Every structure is written in structure tokens, then in C-alpha cells.
Amino acid sequence: MKAKVYVTLKPSVLDPQGKAIQHSVELLGFENVADIRQGKYFEIALDSNLSETEAQTTTEKIAREVLANPVIEDYRVEIVQ
Amino acid sequence: MKFGVIVFPGSNCDHDAYHVISKHVGQPVDFVWHKETDLSSYDAVIVPGGFSYGDYLRAGALAHFSPIMKAIKDFAAKGKFVFGVCNGFQILCESGLLPGALMRNRSLHFVCRHVNIKVENDKTPYTSELEKGEILSIPIAHAEGNYVCDNETLAELEKNNQIIFRYCDENGEISDEANPNGSRNSIAGISNKEGNILGMMPHPERACEELLGSNDGRDIFRSLTNAITDLAEK
């Protein structure tokens, strides 16, 4: 079983790296790009004997306590069979 | 009186801190490896600058899970002194010992130069030898020093006088131009509500000798030494 975790900056937090990427994208001539924000993506392999609920709970805990800093970031967890 | 300098894999200002405590403060000091769990023989610990755990995940994030951090939390809860500089400040924020977080500099550049900081509160264990409004020249060297927190936290910090240092120009004016990293309200250093924990991005341990361009950092260590003596006499 695999868990996917997406960590993103809270909407209220400025993202200077995202802005720099957006600038480069615009320099390359891509139009209609309103905003780019950078985040982090994690793939976690979990023991196959876990139920989907257990997998969800464990991954949420890992995301909350380690992967994301709740002061500046939000996270989203997806469990994939 | 005894100081401890915490050493994580990737700390690189530990020797600077050790040098200042032993040579300029003139007090006993030990290096304390991050796997230690006992701080009972110390009066103050310095969480030094560097790149603990290579700044993996977020600066300071993985150091938070080292065994010594539980000991540091207990140590701080007893009113003992915990002083985090640069990466040490990031670690204290990640551990929840100080509010807020340190993000990528607004410019995206690693900034390494002397800056001016203004003493905003001289009634703390770290600033008693300084005057409110005094301007110190202290070097910074970081890519993630952009202090952020929510509005509620900022209001608390301002109300409780927990903002100890702010970036300023040579005349003490606080402005966007004099803010080297984009920190909210030009924050360079904050304390906890009780005042025994201080975190700051500038490096006072690199500013204790004229040869290095400034000795303005000495008064911070002198204040701390006095605070340790006062606490021991209580």
C-alpha cells in the first residue's frame, strides 16, 4: 500500500521560490500563467497488512508531525492500493 | 557556571560559540552531542548555526527529532537559558520552543554580510548590558531567515515585548531596504514569553573581536552570564 502526501504553503504565505519560477516561465514565453506556487510531494510505502483507515491515520500523523510545518504549510494525504 | 554547545550533524558554528564562551566569556563550556539526553550540569545551552541534517525537509526540521531536544525542552521549562543562533533559531521554531517559522529569503539569495540590528527590549537576560534603541553591527549568513508568523502571533510578540532585535539601517531606522531577508516587521530575534529562550538569525558569536569587524556581540554574552549568576543566587 502506498501513501501520497502533498505539502503546500498556506495561501496566506508568500512563496518567493514560486514567484521566481513563474518569472522564468513567463520569460520563456508561456502566456496565461496567473501564479505558480511550489510544494513538496512524498511517496510512502506502507505495510500491506494495514487497513485503508489505518494507513490514512498513520500517514496523517506523519504529515502533521514531520512532513509539514503547520505554521506555514498545509498537507493532503492520498492512499493508493 | 557552565555552558553547553549542542552539536548536530551539520552544525558549523559550534566551534565559534565554544571559542567565544571559553575565551571571551571566560567560563567552562562543553560540546554536547545531539544524542545526549542529560543537561543537568549546565546553566545555559547554545543551539549553534550551521546546516543540521543538511537542511533536509526544512531548515531545522529534522534536528527537532534528535534526542537532545527533549532534554532542551525540559531544561527550558525549568527556566534555564536556551540561546539559538541562525540554524539554532530555525530549530527552536521547528520545535515549537519559539513561535513562527523561518522561510526562504525574499531575495532567494544566501545573504552573508554585516547588518545593523536595533535592541528593542533591554529588559531580558540576553540584553541587560545593552540599551533600548542601541544599534549593533552583527553578521548574518543565511538563505532561510525570513521570519513569518500569523497576525495573532505577531500581535502577541509585539504586546509582550518578545521582539528583541529588529533589522535597521546605520541610523536605527527600520525600513524595507534595511530588511535583508523580508522578515515580518523586520524581526531579527525573538524570545519566548518567559524570556529565557532567545532565537536570532544574526551571529553574535562572530562579532566578539575587533579583528572580525565588530565586537558588538560581546554584550549579549555578558548579559547572559549576568543572568545565569542572578538565577543561581535566587
Q: Could you describe the 3D structure shown?
A:
The complex is a heterodimer of chains A (81) and B (234). Chain A is an alpha+beta fold and 81 residues long. Chain A has helices spanning 16-27, 52-67; strands at residues 2-9, 39-45, 73-80. Chain A has a single domain (2-80), classed as Phosphoribosylformylglycinamidine synthase subunit PurS (Mth169, Chain: A), CATH 3.30.1280. Chain A has a three-stranded antiparallel beta sheet with strand order 2-1-3, with helices on one face. The radius of gyration of chain A is 16 Å and the shape is elongated. The relative contact order of chain A is 0.35. The mean pLDDT of chain A is 95. With 234 residues, chain B is an alpha/beta fold. Chain B contains five helices and eleven strands. Chain B has helices at 14-25, 68-77, 87-94, 151-159, 218-233, and strands at residues 3-7, 29-33, 44-47, 81-85, 101-103, 111-119, 135-142, 146-148, 163-168, 187-191, 197-200. In chain B, the strands form two sheets. A nine-stranded mixed beta sheet of chain B has the order 2-1-3-4-11-10-9-6-7, with helices on both faces. Chain B has a two-stranded antiparallel ribbon with strand order 5-8. In chain B, helix 1 packs across helix 5 (218-233). The longest helix of chain B is centred in the last third of the chain and has 16 residues, at 218-233. Classes of the chains: A alpha+beta (81), B alpha/beta (234). At the A-B interface, helix 1 of A face loops of B.
Describe this protein with a few key phrases.
heterodimer; A: 81 residues; alpha+beta; Mth169, Chain: A; B: 234 residues; alpha/beta; Rossmann fold; nine-stranded mixed β-sheet
Overview in brief:
By secondary structure, chain A is α+β, with helices and mostly antiparallel strands. Chain A has two helices and three strands; from the N terminus they run βαβαβ.
* CATH superfamily label of chain B: Class I glutamine amidotransferase (GATase) domain
| Total number of helices of chain A | 2
Q: What low-confidence regions of chain A span 5 or more consecutive residues with pLDDT below 50? A: none
Give the total of beta strands of chain A.
3
Biggest beta sheet attributes of chain A: 3 strands, antiparallel
Strand residue percentage of chain B: 15-25%
- Based on DSSP secondary structure assignment, what is the total number of beta strands of chain B? 11
**Total separate domains of chain B:** 1
The residue-averaged pLDDT of chain A reads 95
